[in-house]
Amino acid sequence: MSRGDSAPGLRKILHWKLVLIYLLILLALSIILTTAIGPVYVPPGEIIMLLGSKFGLCVLTSVPHEVIIFQIRLPRIFLGLLVGIALATAGTALQGLFKNPMADPYIIGIASGASVGAALSIMVIPQVFSIYTTPVMAFFGALCTILVVYNIAKVRGRIPVDTLLLTGIAVSLFLGAVLSFMMSIAGEALHNIFFWTMGGFWLANWTKVEITALPVLASFGVIYLFAKDLNAMLLGEESAQTLGINVETAKRILLVLSAFITAAAVAFTGTIGFVGLIIPHITRILVGPDHRILFPASALLGGIFLIWTDALARLLAEMPVGVITAFFGAPFFIYLLKKRKSGYALA
Question: If you count Cβ atoms within 10 Å of the first and of the last residue's Cβ in the chain, which end, N or C, has fewer?
Answer without folding.
Answer: N
